[in-house]
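Case study: Cystathionine gamma-synthase.
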Amino acid sequence: MKDEKQISYILNELGEEGFAFSPVSVPIYETSIFSFQSFAEFKQALQCERTAHLYTRGNNPTVEVVEKKLAALEGGEKAKLFAAGVAAIAAATMAFLQSGDHVVCVRDCYSWTTTLFTRYLKRFQVDVTYIEGKTLVEWEAAMRPNTKLFYLESPTTFSFQLQDLRAVAQLAKAHKIKTVIDNSWATPYFQNPIEFGIDLVVHSCSKYISGHSDVVGGVVVGSEADIDHIFATEFLNIGAAPGPFESWLLLRGLRTLAVRLRQHQQNTAEVVNFLADHPQIEAVYYPFHHSHPQYDLAQRQMRGGSGLLSFTLKTRELEEIARFTDALQHIRRAVSWGGYESLIVPAAVVSSQDPERINFVRLHVGLESPELIIDDLAQALDQIG
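Here is what the predicted structure looks like once written out:
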């Protein structure tokens, strides 16, 4: 576990040495190709694109700084940056699967992860079993002789259920099963799954790593052998490479990751307490609120909580849910999360036909004054009933 001094060094110094003129801000290498001084240098680069600066689709100096920082933050040996989070998820899973394999995946994961498994990989005869994943018994029961990958997301997307990372990792290693986890919610600042034995960590860098809602990106972190395998089998072939400028934006966001997350956590604690006590709220789903059934596990696995949570309204009337949503004056109605702004997504917007989820609302608590967020929620909740 890294202390604040180590984290500060990684965010602000690691990987930034060696640039001409000692720039305070890392240069943007906005180039598609790199040239060589000799035949021998050219030949050597072509023989090992994994390490050479040949073509920005493979490696780029600006991109590499971000990769070094994210690998160090997660406690991995190496990282590979992608053009989107879903590209990172696809590469991290497809690199270790082939026709006839089986995957065990947590049920309430990112929707595009579900799409990858149930639609795309199904075309190649890769089967998937979905489980809640809260107990080790579920993982054991779902395993088959051809199970090659466990996919985790802790906490999960809408219901914020956790998995026991150490226990699942130990089970997987005993059966030579690869483990991949989406760690976007907690970020490397609050949780490091590799420390618990998880093989590969993926992030949507569009979320907290960026922090400004102005760039799309993804990353995979793991051992050098696994990342090199992903580079050779998926990354170069798919071509989902990040641009140098987008990578520079991620680097800019990383500078303030620790400061932003501490504020997100502080604001969210106040908003969660308000919601938990409100008469129009049925339940609040946030791992670091004492009402969460896995509160103790959250305390053991994570050092803190970010700004994303869910709550359920007592009403299940679509008209009232819409009225509550439309009444919000400050909190914006938009997908995604992790930026400085507060956002809301009612589950009914996605599917108003699901009776179990119709009253679910996902809220991202931003960096604004918590009083402003609470006042906005309060006046919108007054529209119900």
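For the exam, be able to explain this: The CA atoms of residues 149 and 178 lie 5 Å apart.
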